[in-house]
Amino acid sequence: MARTPTGTINSVATALAAAKTISGISNAAEAVVSSVAHGFSVGDIVLIYSNWGRLNFRAFRVKSVLADSFVLEGANTSNTELYSPGAGFGTARKAGGWVDLDRTMNHSTSGGDAKTVNVKFIESETELALNDGFTAVQRTFDMDADMIGTPAYNALKTLSETGADTVIKRRTKANAISLLPATVSFNEEENLTEGQIVTVKGTFNAQNISTRYAA
Fold first, then answer.
1. Could you read off the pLDDT of 72-94 as tens digits, one per residue?
2. Residue 121: pLDDT over 80
3. Which residues are paired to 93 by β-bridges?
4. Angle 116-209-111 (CA atoms, 0-180°, nearest 5)?
């Protein structure tokens, strides 16, 4: 069923817990991560740092746990051409201290579009378009300037000042969610437009692609 943005809640993680060592990740439809005494629980959001480039700096939900391993929900690492067997080591950090971003508006997303390189060989009269990844994603929004001093305002300000890694969680009324690893830029300069509330502007600078989960 189609939906509108109304009722969507955006949150930021204000803290990333101490890194837990990953000794390896399986090649599977949903990756099994080996990490001794990781301490994660089902439903935790974790940020993965991995020598597998396609998995590095991705955020996932923990689907199931054992004492020394956990499963990344929706992390398909079964293609051994893309994910070299016996590798995937790195670290995992739990995202926490979630703060909902209240009184925001004018949310907009740019980027994420396919990049191509045009090539024409000398013997051919026709160019070829080669896939070359995707453009970086940015999300922007306005916040009520009078939110100053609130947990949401302070969280954005601190994340912007420190340049810290974070995860952006977006959840719908039906509880579908998306997770975006990002850094934050927060512009406290007031925007005054006649007939509208006074706002300040926030930007999420994506560090990888989103991970989406259905309701």
1. 999 999 999 999 998 899 999 99
2. yes
3. 47
4. 50
What is the token pair recorded at 20? 């837990």
153/81 Cα distance (integer angstroms): 44
Distance of alpha carbon 98 from alpha carbon 19, whole angstroms: 18
Structure token pair of residue 25: 């990740």
Average pLDDT in the chain: 96
Cα–Cα dist 97/163, whole Å: 17
The count of other CB atoms within 10 Å of the CB of residue 20 is: 19
Task: Identify whether the C-beta of residue 116 lies closer than 8 Å to the C-beta of residue 132.
Answer: yes
User: 170 pairs with which residues across the strands?
Assistant: 10, 178
Q: State the pTM of this model.
A: 0.92
Amino acid at 179: L
Type of residue found at 33: V
